[in-house]
Amino acid sequence: MIYLDNAATSWPKPDPVYQTLADFLKTAGANPGRSGHKMAALASATIDDTRAKLARLFGVSDPRRVIFASNTTDALNLAIKGTLRPGDHVVTTVMEHNSIRRPLRALAAHDVSTTKVPADRQGFIDPADIASAIRPNTRLIAMTHASNVNGALQPVEEVAEIAHRHGCLLLVDAAQTAGTIPISLGRLGADLLAFPGHKALMGPPGTGGLLIGDRVGFDDLIPVREGGTGGNSEEDVQPQELPARFEAGTVNTVGIAALGTALDYLAETGVEAAGAHEREMNSRLIEGLAAIPGVTVLSPADESMRVACTSIVVDGWEPADFGIALDSAFDIACRTGLHCAPEACGAIGALPYGTVRLSAGFYTSIDDIDRAVAAVGELAGAALRMD
Q: Which of 268, 287, 305 is the last residue of a domain?
């Protein structure tokens, strides 16, 4: 199989990740932080070790400000619902995934208002539109780092300057950039950053987290769930200290252990080199696709302004049918439809059916790309001949 659905989740995973998943529960499967025996201590140490690795990777000053979550969506819900209060205003964009769109829509029932800024035909937002949308009661700016539809890399650093000048917090969805673009929380300017463990970081599903920047104070972010943390058991309120304040219940110990293994593997190559490989494969893909009659590439033309996430539409085909044909006839895995981002599809002219999305990853080869381009060309040519 040629796997070009890495924007959804990376595959395959490094072999050491599989080995950790197979072995960890046998050797350290106790509940971290809940008991004093050796196995529980080993589980706790593994969680702390992965937390420290993530802090180093993302330039977080204090590892306790790395909060584990079950995925990016979970982390975004904590950030959005934990920061916003009745009467607050949020600025966001039309390029967002439902992981931002839906929590904000739900908060409308609690007197939280939202302004969405537009994007151009390539999927880029203009920071000036963000600045114009800010009101006196704007508390949060929430935006993606790179589009999960067409890979458009957004000007987050410029937006961060605007946010901080107006006293707003900036929340960044790094689902498509964590592990493929070097990220330093301070240099990026994000106050809150949600990341997945299972995409470019190459960990297992069910992992991810929220990074909390130094500008976020105790009262700026409140827990959205409470429960057991293994400490302060005599209290009926959530502990005040990080990370326990935001990690109620048993964390995904085996998943976090495997994520730690994946981070070690990624460190051997380096995020910059891993990302460069993905972008090289993506540029080869786009060059090949753009030369096929009947295929329209909807990703940005400038390779420095995109990640390895390419959307196309093909004359004579609905995206869903095209994806089925790629899978059944050529054993090529891709993603089709609206990608949980219908307004983004609208911005780049891909409504009502969405796009065919092809996303390279760490293990994608030149042969994979060339075979995928040939398959797309064959299917596009078949449609043209039928016309």
A: 268
- For 215-218, which contacts have Cβ atoms below 8 Å and span 24 or more sequence positions? 215/164, 215/169, 215/191, 216/169, 216/191, 216/192
Reduced to 3 DSSP states, what percent helix, strand and coil does the chain have, rounded to the nearest 5? Answer: 45, 15, 40
- Tell me the pTM: 0.95
Residue 3 token pair: 């796997």
Catalytic residues: 340
Identity of the residue numbered 130:
I
| Domain boundary residue, one of 222, 241, 268 | 268
Q: Which CATH number do you get for residue 240?
A: 3.40.640.10
What CATH number has the domain bearing residue 323?
A: 3.90.1150.10
Q: What is the C-alpha to C-alpha distance for residues 259 and 71, in angstroms, rounded to an integer?
A: 12
- Tens of pLDDT, residue by residue over 66-96, are 999 999 999 999 999 999 999 999 999 999 9
Residues spanned by the domain of 364? 2-10+270-386
